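Students often ask what a holo structure prediction actually looks like on paper. The answer is less mysterious than it sounds. You provide the chain, you provide the ligand, and the output is a string of discrete structure tokens encoding the 3D arrangement of the protein together with protoporphyrin IX containing FE.
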Amino acid sequence: MSDADDPKCDPSPTGSEPDSKRDHSRREFVRAAVASGASATLAACLAGESSVTAPAGVAEPASLPDRQHAWNDASPTDADGNVRPPRHHVFWNLSLAVEPDGAARDTVATALAALERALEWSTDGLLFSLGYTPAYFDRFDASLHESVDLPPPDPMVVLAAESDVTVDTTDALLHLVSDDGAVVLAAEEALFGERDRLNGHAVSASLDGIFERTDRRTGFVGAGLPADRQRGLEGVPDSEPVPEGAPFFMGFRSGFRESQATEDRVTIREGPFAGATTQHFETVELDLDAWFDEHDHEHRVARLFSPDHAEREAVGEYGERLDTTTDVTAVTDEIHAHARDEGIVGHAQKLARAREDGEPLLLRRDVNTTDGDVCGLHFVSLQRELAEFRRVREAMAGEAFGQYGLGPRQSNGILQYLRLRHWGSYLVPPRSRRALPRPNPKA
Ligand code: HEM
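The corresponding structure tokens follow.
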């Protein structure tokens, strides 16, 4: 019996719905499965050969771009020309279970290349990256090459006293993404030895036994997804305020091309890790009750963009009036006047002040999450050096506006609605060095 004939595998309640309704039910079902970490049986149904049909990968994975983070050219753009991020995301924190020797390195390399042979490097197929923490590199006698800026993760750079933040002390972070949730589930299974075929290709090696999986996190981004997920979610007002067109829970578009660093800008240029990038990952919980119930739309635009954007009605309901730019640099000089006279500074307005020669330093790839049934954001950013992230994150803390009475609980951007929960830093090596890298590979 094929998966399609198996009633256990049919997401529709009756198993006999019309095609359009059935497709919708299946999408809902797959989405829920990605978020929950489907049971083996369920995942097998979802990700079985008959239900995962994706474009095939390449015979020679070495022909793919050397940067693991080369996702932009493999992603579609929206109607305005901004990169449209992949819709479904799974993150695994991994702890190394063996010595990082040559045999382990070969196994990891083979297991990762199998994904690239089976699935196209695209959002229709699969994109992924494997990054390593400072704790991973600590086990070696040699130090991490000086061309890499990867200090131990330290959330205190932005926190005065808040507790309850976990720091990632595992060894690696795997990030798997696709527009098709079933592809992410199938790739996850293949990578950890729970299936030996993927999209019609044999899988001959797995990470099982090399890494232990610790925490699984999930994310999603795209118009319609947060609006769907807000229903019945704790901490979200009953009025279900997130607009259908908004890709993010706070109700607005983000990631406009001109406020994102390019992949070139975030890439390490020299040394044994040329082609790598550094990755920051933090999880914040969102207080959507307060965000939507305490203020009107105009105030939310002022807080997220700037008071000027709110006054000019420049943003629209969820950002549809913007194209590839927020034009926020036009109001960065006015920020002190806005703080003093209007008692508000915008998040984007604050953050744009941290650009260098007019260019953003961070390539943001953040996603919504409902992990633990809490509404939140996994904020992922790439930058050449962690010090650049730190500078931008300090700009977000906005301490300079305390002199106008704007502390973190006042109209100082969106700080008031965020609670930081998790924080980690990684080196995402070039593809050629992504399997258990030594800290100084040419030495
Ligand atoms: C729930 C949390 C967050 C939300 C809803 C959010 C939303 C937004 C929005 C709507 C924009 C303006 C649109 C755009 O330029 O893409 C923006 C810009 C930006 N955000 Fe956030 N953001 C959040 C957290 C963060 C965090 C934690 C950082 C880390 C430093 C950050 C860094 C930036 C940067 C660098 C910009 C671009 C500024 C520029 O134009 O140069 N955001 N964000």
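The longest helix spans residues 19-36.
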